Amino acid sequence: MGLFSRRSKDADNVALAAARAKLSSQDVDQIRFLLTTKKTLFAVKYVRERTDVDLHLARDLVEEIRLGRYVPPVTDTPVLRMPGTNLAERTRALKAAGELHQATALVVSETGMTEAEAGLFVGALNLDLQDN
After folding, report:
1. Residue 131 above 60 pLDDT?
2. How confident is the model at residue 18 (pLDDT cuts 50, 70, 90)?
3. Per residue in 53-70, pLDDT tens?
4. More confident residue, 70 or 33
5. What CA–CA distance (Å, rounded) separates 27 from 116?
6. Longest CA span, the chain
7. Less packed terminus of the chain by CB within 10 Å, N or C?
C-alpha cells in the first residue's frame, strides 16, 4: 500500500479476515511446511491460489502464520475437557490419533503459549507415558 493509496486499513483487515476464512487446517499445515522448508514464495503463491487475495495481503497472511499469530479454528473434531484428564493426557491422545494440529491448538488455547512453543510441547510428549 503506497503513500497515496486510497485503500483503507479497514478494507485490508476485512479482506484478510475473508482470506483466513477460506483457508482450511490442511491449507495452514501446507503453508507451515512450505515455510519450514524455506519456500516462502511458494507459500505466498499457495495463499493467493486458495484465497484470491492480492500479493500484499497474501504476504501478510503468510507472515502471520510464520509468526504463530494465526491458528485456524478447529471445526473437524471438538476438543472437550473430560473430567479427570489433564492437558498432557488430552494432548497425548490427540497426538496418538494423528491430530497434531488440534493438539497444538489445544495447548495454545489453554496455556497462552505461542504456536511455536505449543508445537515444541506437543513434539516433546512421549506417547508411552501416562500422567498420574
Report:
1. no
2. confident
3. 889 889 989 998 888 877
4. 33
5. 17
6. 62
7. C
Lowest pLDDT segment from 6-15, 49-58, 110-119: 6-15
Which of 73, 70, 63, 57 shows the shortest CA–CA distance to 35? Answer: 63
Contacts (Cβ under 8 Å, ≥6 apart) of 4: none
Number of neighbours of residue 52 by Cβ within 10 angstroms: 13
What gap in Å lies between CA 51 and CA 23, rounded to an integer? 7
